[in-house]
Design goal:
174 residues; alpha+beta; five-stranded antiparallel beta sheet; 6 helices
């Protein structure tokens, strides 16, 4: 999952920003003249571009190749081994969730999704529900995982939840 060699034309995941194709690798007209950039085009929006400086380790650490079928299966088998506990302190919880979203690690994203879905399920019998920020975090994490699994397996994003449940069992919370 950590092959750091990228080529023009590769599909890559950039944090939770989505799936991109590397259009170019090299200097561009703005910024430092000798500074190379990854020019990324999102697969979901052909009209926009994202520029990532090749020499910025913080930003390039968020770039990775999409998961393979084998990696997806391994993560789905093992994600229940890495539970994420609900933190009652909203600020601490949101900071931890933001860090997970920024990293974009699929195993952590699945743990985050599971944590939020378990909390949502726990609140079902009461008049309470997930906060707006928790709901938005859940949607971003779900979109990120669904997009990547969809691309990697060649299935529709809407079919990903059924695929996951078929691997984890219909009683699984995810």
């Amino acid at each position: 999952m950590e092959n750091r060699l990228f080529q023009k034309g590769d599909r890559v995941v950039y944090g939770t920003s989505g799936i991109f194709r590397i259009e170019e690798i090299g200097p561009i007209d703005f910024g430092a003249p000798d500074q190379p950039y990854f020019t990324l085009r999102p697969l979901s929006d052909k009209g926009s571009l994202t520029f990532v400086p090749c020499n910025n380790q913080t930003l390039t650490a968020r770039l990775r190749h999409p998961l393979t079928r084998e990696e997806i299966e391994k993560i789905l088998r093992s994600h229940l081994d890495t539970p994420l506990d609900w933190d009652g302190d909203r600020k601490t919880r949101l900071a931890a969730f933001r860090d997970i979203l920024t990293e974009g690690d699929p195993t952590e994203l699945l743990s985050l999704i599971r944590c939020l879905l378990l909390q949502k399920k726990a609140l079902e019998g009461s008049s309470r529900r997930l906060s707006l920020s928790d709901s938005e975090t859940l949607q971003v994490a779900l979109h990120s995982i669904h997009s990547e699994i969809s691309l990697s397996l060649g299935i529709a994003p809407d079919d990903v939840p059924d695929y996951i449940l078929s691997r984890l069992g219909t009683d699984a919370v995810l």
